[in-house]
Amino acid sequence: MNVFVAIAGLAFLILIHEAGHFFTALAVGMRPRKFYIGFPPPLVRVRRRGIEYGIGTIPLGGYVKIPGMHRPAARDLDFRLQHAMSQSPELVKPLEAVKRPLERGDYDGARAALDELEQALREVGQPTDVLTDVRDALAPDAYWRQRAWKKVLVIFAGPGTNLLFAIIIFAVLFMSGGGKATTTVDQVLSTRPAAQMGLRPGDRVLAIDGKRVEAPSDITRTISGSHGRALILLVRREGRTVTLGPTRPRRSNGVYQLGFRLRGKSLSPPEALEESIRVTALVSRDIVSSLGHLVHKQGRQDISSPVGIVQGSSEAIDQGAQSYLWVLGLISLSLALLNLLPLLPLDGGHIFFSLIEAIRGRAVAREVYERVSAIGIALVLLLFFIGLSNDVGRIGGG
Length: 398
Fold this sequence. Notes:
The chain is of the alpha+beta class and about 400 residues long. Among the domains are: about 75-140; about 185-265, PDZ domain (Pdz3 Domain); about 270-395, no CATH class. The strands form four sheets. It has a four-stranded antiparallel β-sheet. It has a two-stranded antiparallel sheet with strand order 1-2. Strand 1 and strand 2 (about 50-65) form a beta hairpin. It has helices at about 1-25, 75-80, 80-85, 90-105, 105-125, 130-140, 150-180, 195, 215-225, 270-290, 295-300, 305-320, 320-340, 345-360, 365-395; strands at about 35-50, 50-65, 180-190, 205-210, 210, 230-235, 240-245, 250, 255, 260-265. The protein contains 15 helices and ten strands.
């Protein structure tokens, strides 16, 4: 059940990412052709006002088809019609009538000639849906024909939605008791030293090894600074003072811990929003910094694939709803930052090239797009396989 909830959470984050692209494209007049919950092929679909809505066979995330992501080229038609041409050589003339204006950049002329090619396909009994993508790329609302600010806005809307979701979920958690920590225990992790020494939720920590603690930072600093030395805790429980221990902290992620969480104090909405933005900025800085360390072995070990993300989410569910929501917010933030990397086919790559074209005042050659995309895909796949290798090692205990 935990794994199912974790997968559903990841799918939801992908879905809102695609929804960000979809609704922003609609708002700026760049009408998407498809919007799916899940990925095609479709189980169910319906067409409304020129947009195909559907539920995909692959139940993960969502899919949006924005018309004309790339400038059309004559070879696109050669590729799509090679089978029809082998069976119906009479299509050569109407095909060339479309290719010639494409080659000289007369896209309106190519669009007009496309109608004749479609009619010719019907006359010889060939399917016409092979022309759909080319027709979309020649349409007035095609992505590549739009002004730079529209293209950047539509593409940024995906990771921007993930970023906004992270800020909102963090703010909600801060308002619901995940704000400034107190000295009262909120949760004791099972099988950890705190559980073994008898610490309970609701206990208020008064002193550690005879030293009074006044703030949450005192508790954290004293335990982590013990270097594994056995500690005695003095706590207030139901109006009486209780002594627990001695118990040795356990080293986890390079820090000595007893294994408990402190209760947070609820923040007001303005305070929660401010703290959420601050935390988002700090975590973003750390994530970006970690990407710069990928050349080092330790940096590569921090990468996870969807397998590791689901596993981490599943473990967080065991620790309670708040822990899971914190992890979900962090995953959403990570998805936003990953997609903003200036690599094609990621969103950041499309934004980067849109800005380059705006500065140059002319389009980047289609061949450049294709070569850069090949490099980007290779790098993304490399990151995926490094993450998958790490996750398999963690699951197997390696």
